[in-house]
Amino acid sequence: MAEKEQKPLNLADVGQKLVGHSKSTEFTATRGLVVELFPSIFEASERMSARAISRYLLDEQNIKLSAVTITKALNDPKRSWLSFFAAIEPQAITVGKWLKRADFKFLFVSKNEYVDRTRPDFNSAVGQAIGRSVRAILIPEKVAADKVLQEKWFSIGLATRLKAKPYLEEHLMSLGDKF
After folding, report:
1. Over the range 14-40, which residues count as b (16 or more CB within 10 Å of their CB) and which as e?
2. Helices 89-99 and 140-148 sit at what angle, rounded to 10 degrees?
3. How confident is the model at residue 34 (pLDDT cuts 50, 70, 90)?
4. According to the 3-state scheme, what is the secondary structure of the chain?
5. What is the C-alpha to C-alpha distance for residues 158 and 156, in angstroms, rounded to an integer?
6. What is the predicted pLDDT for the residue at 171?
7. Residues 66/139, Cβ–Cβ less than 8 Å
8. What's the CA gap between 90 and 98, in Å, rounded?
9. Which of 18, 98, 121, 147 has the greatest number of CB atoms lying within 10 Å of its CB?
10. Can you tell me the mean pLDDT for 32-40?
């Protein structure tokens, strides 16, 4: 039996077909997800494999993040932590300036200790509400920065943040020069 004659591949056509197909299928690019989820992935990796993390994210959260992508992030933790930290760096600088702490040690304390350092000590609930309102009016950029830090940084467990410290120390020292 004679073999079919193969046409020479036109790579431009192949490329155009690939792009066309990518536009007609479900969007699956999750590059930023691994950065956003890295602290949780980092912590979970102590007890789970990258494959198990990927399977959990797909089965339980409907998030497609390959084991290969997770492994790449875990194999270069410094790069991954710096990428994650880049999203909150401006807020850390704002709070650091407000606290007059160029060493950024406030990032590696418990959430309760951070809240105690950043909020005035009012005894009553009314006093606390008044204090929040006054802060929001007088220093809105600090309040906004504080909110981001509490949501993105202090939501990470202290033990995990302390494990991130060696990866971030050099970068944090360079940020201290901006004060």
Report:
1. eeeeeeeeeeeeeeeebeeebbebbbe
2. 130
3. very high
4. CCCCCCCCCCHHHHHHHHHHHHHHCCCCCCHHHHHHHHHHHHHHCCCCCHHHHHHHHHHHHCCCCCHHHHHHHHHCHHHHHHHHHHCCHHHHHHHHHHHCCCCCHHHHCCHHHHHHHHCCCCCCHHHHHHHHHHHHHHCHHHHHHHHHHHHHHCCCCHHHHHHHHHHHHHHHHHHHCCC
5. 6
6. 93
7. no
8. 12
9. 98
10. 94
Amino acid identity of residue 100, one-letter, is K
Q: Which two tokens stand for residue 151?
A: 């949501």
Tokens of 98: 């407000």
Residue where the block lists tokens 């050099």: 170
